[in-house]
UniProtKB/TrEMBL annotation:
One of its GO terms (molecular function) is exonuclease activity. It comes from Micromonospora zingiberis. It comes from the Bacteria. This is Endonuclease/exonuclease/phosphatase family protein. Pfam families: Exo_endo_phos. Keywords: Endonuclease, Exonuclease, Hydrolase, Nuclease. Residues 61-220 form the Endonuclease/exonuclease/phosphatase domain. The lineage of its organism: Bacteria, Bacillati, Actinomycetota, Actinomycetes, Micromonosporales.
Amino acid sequence: MAVRPYQIRRSLRAVVGPLLVAALLAGCSVARPAESIRLGVLQMNLCNSGMAKGCFTGRAVDRAAEVIRAERPDIVTLNEICAGDIDVLERAMTRVHDGIVVAAFQPARNGRTGEPYRCVNGEQYGVGVVAHVPAPYRGHTVHNGFYPAQDPADPEQRAWLCVEALGVSFTCTTHLAYTSADLALAQCAHLLDAAIPALHSRSRYQPTLVSGDLNLRHGGSPDVRSCVPAGYRHRHDGGVQQLIATPDVTIESTRSIGMNQTTDHAAFLVTLVTERQPDPAA
């Protein structure tokens, strides 16, 4: 049975000034230099399926919205969420940012039925991205897939999700297998060595970052660095949450933010600098 691989919504507010400037510049034949953009990337594992009784509280989404309002991140990557959680956190993002906010959700797959995996409340369960796209907005595309390597004993089949904001970046998230570190490493290698290079070959190259709960550790056995391509930037929260970025991204700082015992992971905030790619049509 065919499964719709993701749900996506887009929240728009009018941003007349920057769009007018972009329109005026559209006729200019002089190539413009790349523009540096500072981005705050907030990773959160909310343990909100209802299945993991040791970390489920039912309060993690509300706390996540509080953190978004306080920290005003540009990008939020989300693991262990239900589909409806994206709506709540998208609204939180639109309250702290003018302009365009895009949101995407990718369910895990139930390996026994082929259907999307479900939270206890019946909603689809998986990972998500919510992102404020700095003006001028040139459009966005969602990419997703399932890993070829899965644990046959675990019905939850892991997936990856990338949002391509044209001219800005690819932002990807994933939640890798917890039953085997070797399996998580194989999934990590597939994402960074196969899936993302395929995106780069099909689309115009853009700076790319992966932020998520990889169930692998810096200094672990196996070590998460085993799947980080040479030259890529890498930061971690001291645990299993990682940010990996292409070499053209500069990482300025990292910080953990308490979630007030609403989930079993602190939020992980990374501030980075990248460059907006010049519009080839300009």
